[in-house]
Task: structure prediction
Amino acid sequence: MAPYETDDGTDTTEVDDLGARRRKAARYVVPVTVLGVAAATIGLVPALAASGDPDLPKISAQQLIEKIAKSDVQQLSGTVRISTDLGLPNLGGLENSLMSGATKRGDGSSADPTAKLTELASGSHTLRVAADGPDRQKVSLLESAAEYSLIHNGKDVWGYDSRSNEVYHSTAAEGSGSTGRRDDVPATPKDLTNEALKAVDATTSVTVDGTEQVAGRDAYKLLIKPRQSGTTVGAISVAVDARTGLPLKFTLTPASGGAAVVDAGFTRISFARPAASTFDFTTPKGAKVTEGDHAAKVPDSANAPSKAPAPSKGSKGDLGKGPDGLKVLGKGWNSVAVLDTGGQGIPSGASSGGGDLGGFLGSLGDQVKGKFGSGTVFSTRLVNALVTDDGTVYVGAVNKSALVKAADAAK
Result:
């Protein structure tokens, strides 16, 4: 276990490890979930909340994390605004076509929540959320002249896309607080905070950074900052409701500076029980209905008590095992996941003309060489990936130099 440190650097008491499993390997493509790669023991830096507006009792970082863990909000309704700015290249509308095509994967329905909620990985979106215990949740994604709703009511899970008038239906075990599918997408401040806390370890500074008001609620600000160089993550700020312990706002800023990569927060919230009719669903006339074996998880913004999450213990060597046996190089915020595509690389010397897809994709990245050979680095403001010519992929919330170093070390 990692010791607490006082402001003058002396060691005091030890804190218990916080245990939780990390997400599936495929989730590395979702920008915020790459934070779950880190694996080590907790090492928190306590700090008392500075004076500010509102004026709240002083609290340490550990106490605030425990407050989040003990939060047991069962009913709420409100509006969440989420913005994601990865700094992806302009593909002349190609990215929109790819996203549209993604919504047709799985069971082939545009109402399939698995693909629909991945749209939150880019741009700005408004969500309306409601929860009434573990068996009733609703999330609505408000779009231009359209709306997508995901409703969990007892054993039924419904996804409805008003633009296409398509319905996706599945079932979930009552009382589970989940709709059954494991590849859920973080969508609310609570979801994002749980993911971020998985990355808290001895390579992380965690402090209380004053107070603020969010959606008319008094809140403490929990500040999470990597101690390591080489990571693309600058800092994570979480506004925690002073009374309930529910995360109200989540902001991730990149090490490169500028606008936040992810900014998600309530603009309106009520802890009154939503009307039962909120979770009713009737299939609209003429709608196409697709039946699925499983359904995507409704983001659990408040439907169950949260556990203070943290990663499982890392390996003793440099090469560990991530979720589902995924290989992980390094530790903490410099962790890099390694995937083998079976030789499907992007040749660095491919021509960029003549309709050559390899050349086109290669032109979107930076060509690099090292002990590992040659490859292409594809960069965003948070998640970067190195695809080698022999088809090995190195991905993580680290910069280009760190990816090349990791690839060299693996050889």
In short: Helices lie at 61-70, 94-102, 113-116, 189-197, 357-363, 400-410. The chain has a mean pLDDT of 75. The first helix runs from residue 61 to 70. The CA atoms of residues 166 and 226 lie 44 Å apart.
